[in-house]
Write a structure and sequence with these properties.
single chain; 9 helices; globular; 9 strands; 3-stranded parallel beta sheet; 289 residues
């Protein structure tokens, strides 16, 4: 069966990949629509040595201030996730399949006390800024949440617009205790050249704590795990890859501080060569998905 968090053997310590950001609860957001979508997508993730998934359906932070509406939403997610987990039991007996949420910080003072919003058994919340833009006073928001006992893992910081050229705001976020999660696809041009350049810049500063798929559970969407791994290994950044996809995600699952990741710099043009070799550029391509 799919392993319960409390029943897991070795906590995924075989060196496989732990993915902390995906949308694999069917029918609750813009991710997987059906149980078949979940089976297909998780199957591809397991092929790429993903051994633990904390899937993270979208949830607006403002909803947390309306307890009845929040409970209706969480109960719906509970039911859909439980059904998906049951379907996965026979297909992937060694997989740890859990869920939290990706919380949209559309207000500065969400109530993140419900444990279903956090990584299981921890105070860690995956969160994102609204509309892929950086609101004012974001360090203060992070500081207040930390005073409330919440540790924020910021989703895909490379995708936000509004950074200064040297990304000094990232240092301010980290100073307030936030950790950063980058998408594999950002490194391979999935979201365009400016995002890829910010991703490379963040890695060169050692400012990324973990990599995840942000996979939306559709058969035509690529995962980019294999391409990103090839990029790191060809650059000789084996230890950084291990920290970003295995060790640090494992630590975050336990509510622990991630380890520092050494700066990574990739040779010019390497990402394009790997992307071309492993399956082309298009999102619709089904080769090596």
């Amino acid at each position: 069966m799919v392993v319960e968090a409390d029943d897991r053997r070795g906590d995924g310590e075989g060196g496989g990949i732990i993915d902390l950001h995906s949308h694999l609860v069917p029918g609750v957001d813009d991710g997987a629509r059906t149980l078949d979508d979940v089976l297909e997508g998780v199957g591809r993730m397991v092929e790429r040595r993903v051994e633990r998934i904390i899937t993270t359906p979208h949830l607006e932070g403002s909803l947390t201030l309306d307890p009845p509406a929040l409970e209706r939403r969480l109960s719906r997610v509970d039911a859909a996730w439980t059904e998906a987990r049951a379907v996965l039991q026979g297909a992937h007996p060694d997989l740890i399949f859990e869920r939290a949420h990706e919380v949209l910080l559309d207000i500065p003072d969400p109530d993140l006390s419900d444990p279903r919003l956090r990584f299981p058994g921890t105070s860690v919340v995956l969160a994102e800024w609204p509309r892929l833009q950086i609101p004012p006073e974001t360090p203060r928001v992070l500081s207040r949440l930390r005073k409330d006992g919440i540790r924020i893992l910021l989703a895909h910081p490379e995708r936000y617009r509004g950074f200064d050229p040297d990304l000094s705001l990232v240092a301010a976020w980290r100073a307030e205790g936030a950790w950063l999660q980058m998408n594999h696809g950002s490194l391979m041009g999935r979201y365009g050249s400016p995002v890829r350049q910010r991703a490379l810049q963040l890695l060169s500063k050692g400012a990324v704590d973990c990599l995840s798929s942000d996979f939306h559970g559709r058969a035509h969407l690529r995962l980019y795990i294999r391409e990103a791994e090839s990029l790191f290994l060809k650059a000789g950044a084996h230890e950084a890859w291990r920290l970003l996809v295995s060790e640090n995600p494992r630590r975050l699952c336990r509510g622990e501080e991630p380890l520092p990741v050494p700066p990574v710099v990739f040779p010019e043009g390497m990402a394009d060569r790997i992307r071309s070799f492993l399956g082309g550029r298009g999102q619709g391509s089904r080769r090596n998905r």
